[in-house]
Every structure is written in structure tokens, then in C-alpha cells.
Design goal:
mainly alpha; Serine Threonine Protein Phosphatase 5, Tetratricopeptide repeat
């Protein structure tokens, strides 16, 4: 059996909003996208995809500390949910509900490495490796 993270109801209701944000980012409207994401998080603080998108914007703007905060928050929310569910496995990246978790983990590892926190990056890698051993995002290769 494969497991999939269920996003909070408030996030599921805002699926169209995140698609609009992605279009804004692709069109270079980063400032508007950021404002929309901040608003989405004010309405739904556990909106994983909003945290991931804000983390990506912060990385583009070379703000590793802010990026780490957003990626770390999404990663932490997922880890708590997984622990509460008894740490189910496997948790394949291919399932839509799991993508924000792995994307947040990759962003977090990247930020930790950029800020000379290799041991913490290795800890994140160790935590997620058994969840999807195929590692389609290449997260494990980042710490080698």
C-alpha cells in the first residue's frame, strides 16, 4: 500500500489560487504572486504549496534564511502529520499530495547546505530517504 499526505481542507479549497500564483511567477509577476501567497497563508497557515512557492521566490531573491523558514515550515508540518499517522511508508513523490513535502524537503536541504548546516541537511535526507527510495528529485545527491 502507498500513502499520500492529505492536504488541509483550506488548502484543497484554494487549489485554483495556487495555480494562479504559479502562472504569475511564470509571467514574472513575482511581487503580486508573493502578496497572494502571503494572503493565502493568512487564510490557511498550513498551506504547504504556498510555503513551497514562497520558499522558491525567496531562493530566487537569494534570501536563504526566508526560504529556509518556508521550506522548513512545510517540512515540519508534514513530519508531524506522518508521525501522528504512525510513520506510514512508502510515501511516493508521484502522488500529488506528497509532492509539496518532497519539494519542501529539497528546498530545505538546499538552504541548509547554503548556510553551512550540512549535519542538519544530512538529517533531513536520512529522514526522507526511506519514504521514497527512488529519490526522483535527487535530494540524497545534494549532501554527497
Amino acid at each position: 500500500m502507498q500513502w499520500e499526505i492529505v492536504q488541509p481542507r483550506c488548502a484543497r479549497k484554494r487549489r485554483d489560487d495556487i495555480e494562479e500564483v504559479e502562472a504569475m511567477v511564470e509571467a514574472g509577476e513575482t511581487e503580486i504572486a508573493r502578496d497572494e501567497l502571503v494572503w493565502l497563508l493568512s487564510e490557511c497557515p498550513d498551506f504547504l504549496e504556498a510555503h513551497v512557492q514562497l520558499g522558491l521566490i525567496a531562493l530566487e531573491e537569494e534570501d536563504a534564511k526566508l526560504a529556509r523558514g518556508h521550506f522548513g515550515r512545510a517540512y515540519e508540518l508534514c513530519c508531524k502529520a506522518l508521525e501522528a499517522a504512525g510513520s506510514p511508508q512508502p510515501l511516493p513523490y508521484a502522488l500529488p499530495g506528497n509532492k509539496p513535502f518532497f519539494e519542501a524537503a529539497k528546498g530545505l536541504v538546499h538552504c541548509l547546505l547554503d548556510t553551512n548546516r550540512r549535519p542538519l541537511a544530512a538529517t533531513v535526507c536520512k529522514r526522507i530517504q526511506p519514504l521514497d527510495p527512488s529519490d526522483p528529485l535527487g535530494i540524497q545527491r545534494l549532501v554527497k
